[in-house]
Amino acid sequence: MNAKTADKIATGVFVTVAAFIVLLLAGLLGYILFRGVGHISWHFLTSAPETIRKGGGIGPQLFNSVFLLVLTMLITIPIGLGAGIYMSEYAPANRVTNAVRLIVEVLSSVPSIIVGLFGLLVIVNLFGFGFSLFSGALALTVFNLPLMVRITEQGLKGVPREQKEASLALGLSKWKTITSVMLPIALPVILTGTILSAGRVFGEAAALLFTAGMSSPRLDFTNWNPFSPFSPLNPFRPAETLAVHIWKINSEGLAPDAGQIAAGASAVLVITVLLFNFGARWLGRYLYRKFTAIK
Predict the structure, then answer these.
(1) pLDDT of residue 52
(2) Which spans are transmembrane here (predicted)?
(3) What is the chain's alpha carbon radius of gyration, rounded to the nearest angstrom?
């Protein structure tokens, strides 16, 4: 077999495998959306499960998912940025640093159910936060922090060395160089990774079963006191997120239209995650053109 024939065969195999994966993904997404989009309505998105006929709204669960996402990113972004900047620009190249990078890589591949069990033992029981949104946010921070650190470090290392050296040569301090020269250039990569990690948070369920809980108090959306147990803004109340709600309603099957509720909620979850991904790509391209002056 000559080189051209081998190249054609290899190309055909790769194209076939890629097409199969794309068709499989498109079929899966199409099936979920086909089953669920017809059940989505404004009433479905804003009503509580017990206030709609046949028991089918996802309003509180959708709010809990968004609130949990905000809490998680408020904790993850500052820590992840700081750790990524340190690992990229300040950490010495030695065995300790290499060990930290290895630990970060290992943490990024830990199953989310293990993170949930860790959260149950340490955050919920040892620290005494109980089943709450805050416990879930801390557990998801452990789950998402390695990705945030790695994205920040890689984004900063992708900055051309000449620009960094030129800034230092002009007399700027190292910190000023990082904040004024390197971070703006690395910002598209960091923001894209941040939005993608936010999509992972929104769709997570396993870790939240053991930390945020599988039920929510009856929320009073007219009560905005964050210390009230029935306030939607209270971060220390138990909360059932949208992904957990899908699992729960399928496993219990108490609602007469559980299949329709799960299908609609799954479609909402898939659409939201897709929006996160497309938004990340669009924002990354926009910021790259803005900071590089490429039209």
Answers:
(1) 44
(2) 12-34, 66-87, 99-123, 129-147, 181-202, 261-280
(3) 23
